Amino acid sequence: MGVAASLTEAKPDEKAVRKEESALHALSAYLKEDMEACNRAIVARMQSPVPLIPQLGAHLVAAGGKRLRPLLTLASARLCGYQPSPEHQRHVALAACVEFIHTATLLHDDVVDESTLRRGLASANAVFGNKASVLVGDFLFARSFQLMTADGSLRVMAILSAASATIAEGEVLQMATQNDLSTPIEKYLEVIHGKTAALFAAACRVGAVVAERPEAEEQALEDYGTNLGMAFQLVDDALDYAADQQILGKTVGDDMREGKITLPVLAAYRAGNEEDRAFWQRVIETGEQTDADLPHALELIARTGAIQTTLERATQYAEAAIAALSIFPESEIKTLLVETASYTVSRAH
After folding, report:
1. With contact defined as beta carbons under 8 Å apart, do 91 and 77 qualify?
2. Under 8 Å between Cβ of 304 and 334
3. Phi-psi label, residue 137: left if phi above 0, alpha if psi -120 to 50, beta otherwise
4. Which residue has the higher pLDDT, 16 or 192?
5. Is 133 exposed, middle or buried (0-12, 13-18, 19+ CB in 10 A)?
6. The 3-state secondary structure of 201-238, one letter per residue
């Protein structure tokens, strides 16, 4: 199956589609023509005379996904009044660029984390091997920079290249904090800003740039993206200890097995008694885990209210994202972006 066929046939798992996602579906529907053009750009740029590259690309596309980041670029451009022409579709090309950056980081992350599932299906590294995943990730990064160069704006290139560097820094920082329960919450927040929020922010800001809007609107959209990304990652970290595996799209408890330091763990560790903390030290810091440890971890997280603590923090970020849009006049696309921020938190309920 080729990449183009996969884009046509990829369907979200019905069990993973929840009524709270209506806002995201509405945003996708509003931007349907733009997203179709973006998908065509992705297909075109995924082609290569090296057969393994489009094969692995087709696997990634078939896995589905919300394509939230390119949607944010398209939505931000439209919010700012960008008027494309058949010959000039900068927002579409840059949305594809954002998706390539994101997908490249996913390929590399799954290798580093030794993940076997991605969006409920076998991860690329599980199917094609680590070497292929790393190298195709490199290919996608290269394609993203070709798209930036073709756009011709040094401002766009500065924003997206800086985000790419920040993502890498976030992943390295996460590796440095792994297995360390003494990690301050501020450091954890720095990690998720780097690995997730930075690309959300860049995806939004370039929408204002292509529309040639003033700095205040650029900054507002960057603030929206940053806060949305923070909320999104906090909820993802909560879902790792609270979701059905089919909804989560990966194995529940992967973060614990990998010794990742996330807010649910930090909150449960700090709120627990001496026996609880000894448990977390064994499973997270020393990595000594048994089959009975995940159920016990879920019990401790529930008892200490760690999920609620995490979602309260996520809600604060979602509210900040919504507030950042106040600079823009009321419109249908603004309403959809507001609802998207609300959805980000509601998907955990």
Report:
1. yes
2. no
3. alpha
4. 192
5. buried
6. HHHHHHHHHHCCCCHHHHHHHHHHHHHHHHHHHHHHHH
**3-state class of 163 per DSSP?**
helix
Residue 214's alpha-carbon distances to 209, 210, 222, 322, 328, in angstroms, are: 8, 11, 13, 19, 12
Q: Give me 291's structure tokens.
A: 């089959």
Single pTM value for the model: 0.90
Percentage of residues in the chain having pLDDT higher than 90: 70
Residue type, 133: S
pLDDT per position as a tens digit, 166-186? 999 999 999 999 999 999 999
Q: What is the largest CA-CA distance in the chain?
A: 65
CA atoms of 341 and 343, how far apart (whole Å) = 5
Residue length of the chain: 349
Q: For the segment 74-123, what is each residue's pLDDT rounded down to a tens digit?
A: 999 999 999 988 778 999 999 999 999 999 998 988 888 777 766 667 77
In 10 A of CB 14, how many CB atoms? Answer: 7
In whole angstroms, what is the distance from residue 306 CA to residue 266 CA? 8
Yes or no: say if 266 and 181 are a contact pair by the CB < 8 Å rule.
yes
Phi-psi region of 249 (alpha: psi -120 to 50; beta: other; left: phi over 0): left
For the residues of 230-285, what is the DSSP string, one character each? HHHHHHHHHHTTTS-HHHHSS-TTHHHHTT---HHHHHHHHHS-HHHHHHHIIIII
| Contact indicator for 103, 110 with CB cutoff of 8 Å | no
CA distance 65 to 106: 12
